[in-house]
Amino acid sequence: MRGLVECFAETAGVRPRRRVPLDVPPGPDADLLVTVLDEVIYLLEVAGEIVLEGRFEPTPDGGISGGLTVGDAAQARPVGAVPKAVSLHDLRFGRNDGGWSCAVTIDV
């Protein structure tokens, strides 16, 4: 999430506006990731809000529950192309020796 936002905006100085709850239904880990990234893009496009932080916990059924802290996107400084969608092509997400890693292609 943070990596996605940092590709197109500098958020230093953006004040938190609200917390957006997000519950993601059970599925493969990669699907959970894509759902969260899609929500980051949706909030930017539809609400003009930029994600500053996200916190999630696993749910007993295999989903995740938590939320995103967002601020006014107009307060952020643009540093790259605004994302339009998450591509599923060559999507990778999983555990490795050092923790978790992912590779996601973002359409702009």
Query: Order of strands side by side in the largest beta sheet?
Result: 2-4-3
Order of helices and strands: HEEHEEEEE
What is the arithmetic mean of pLDDT?
93
Secondary-structure-based class equals alpha+beta
According to DSSP, the number of beta strands is 7
Q: First CA to last CA: what distance? A: 16 Å
What is the share of helical residues? 10-25%
- Residue stretches low in confidence (pLDDT < 50, at least 5 long) are none
The dominant shape is globular
**Count of helix runs:** 2
Q: Give the percentage of residues in beta strands.
A: over 45%
State the domain count: 1
Write a structural description:
It is a single chain. This protein is an alpha+beta fold and 108 residues long. The protein has one domain. 22% of the residues lie in helices and 49% in strands. The chain has helices spanning 2-6, 29-47; strands spanning 9-10, 16-24, 49-58, 64-72, 77-78, 85-96, 99-107. The strands form three sheets. Strands 2-4-3 form a three-stranded antiparallel beta sheet, covered by helices on one side. Strands 1-5 form a two-stranded antiparallel sheet. A two-stranded antiparallel sheet has the order 6-7. The longest helix is centred in the middle third of the chain and has 19 residues, at 29-47. The radius of gyration is 14 Å and the shape is globular.
